């Protein structure tokens, strides 16, 4: 058990240090990808372009009902743009497909006469009227490389119509082809340079240039601005391959309100709907999370023919179809800031704090193991030998307790006991502090077999004595007994055993 504890300390110490090295190399790359639980909800409302307050109708929209009237009209309005982006199939460890549903709702309008109206939205499946509160709706689907957040081309489509139940959305969607720019998030480690940003309204990539830094809700962000070039929306086909409804209008000159030299009121004039935009995004640079967004949308009708053959009033004509500045609301900004902080904390935990804690713990465990190992070695070096009484030292070496004391043996009144006792005392106990007693009985050095330790096999060091033996005398092999002298009257004399020599064999 004493060895298991240090072994466990060493094992877990090495494991902690190994994990501290491996986690940044393995875990952090797993975190630096588009998360498969991505769920971004953004709400933006129209605000005055100059950020003035008190304007309840900061946007301008085309009055769709005026198509059936004598003259084109526009309305002042307040709009709300809603967007939710989630992950759908196909998605795996390499790619993530984002589905983003977007709608623009008309909250309230005011006509030229000052009449205010709050439009309503028809239920799904019902026929929509020109006064319906739903201005636009679409569903965008795009597959991204999870490491770079750049579209990979696997899925790139735009759904412009509602798909009936059981119908594949692809049948009511337009293939957008290959795109390059970011949309719903930037990549990781954003730099202060230019990136492509994809504009869904005009279906084109536009450069987004770095402008400055800004702290939003405690989060450092990079501010990028993208100027979307003018695009003729009639060139963007619908599912059927035709120009989308409302992108081309041919109406009399008087309906457009165009007058001038050489222009007749009933002359049909074809106008196309164009779009441009200025987009602002504030991006958290470490994770690529978009914290705030602002879009200046401008769509308008104008003549596609700008040649000299076209009358000047026609070439100069512009009529707003949509002019609005959409600004993310405070709740969206706060939510995105929280997401950015969450992703940053995960990266910091996996890339710094967790390796640091595991590394320190590993060093402490190994230090504890080294201390216990050193202490164990030191204890073994100072511990006396444990054995059966024999430590390998010779008869002249002192033991751990000092010199051996002579323990006198009890005398025996039996005949010959003195001789036996003398012999036994001489061979069993040695006084190491004083020289050997010349009268003590001890085996001759010559009688000891070469190389034999007398303390290992003491009985083999006692020589055998040959000669006549009488059972009645009570003598044994430890020494001769004189038959002429009664054993009971003879004093104990050990000269016979002291002066014997081992007979030749």
Key phrases:
505 residues, 3 domains, 15-stranded antiparallel β-sheet, elongated
Notes on the protein architecture:
The radius of gyration is 54 Å and the shape is elongated. β3 and β4 form a beta hairpin. It folds into three domains: 1-31 and 344-381; 37-328, no CATH class; 406-505, no CATH class. The two termini are 58 Å apart. It contains six helices and 15 strands. It is an alpha+beta fold and 505 residues long. α1 runs antiparallel to α4 (330-382). Residues 387-404, 413-436, 440-448 and 467-505 have low confidence and may be disordered. The protein has a 15-stranded antiparallel sheet that branches.
Decide which structural class fits the backbone.
Answer: alpha+beta
Q: How large, in whole angstroms, is the Cα Rg? A: 54 Å
Enumerate how many helices there are, as a single number.
Answer: 6
Low-confidence stretches: 387-404, 413-436, 440-448, 467-505
Number of domains: 3
Order of helices and strands: HEEEEEEEEEEEEHEEHEHHH
| DSSP summary, beta strand count | 15
Q: Report the principal-axis shape.
A: elongated
User: How much is the average pLDDT?
Assistant: 80
Beta-strand fraction estimate: 25-35%
Indicate the percent of residues in helices: 10-25%
Measure the end-to-end span: 58 Å
Largest sheet: 15 strands, antiparallel
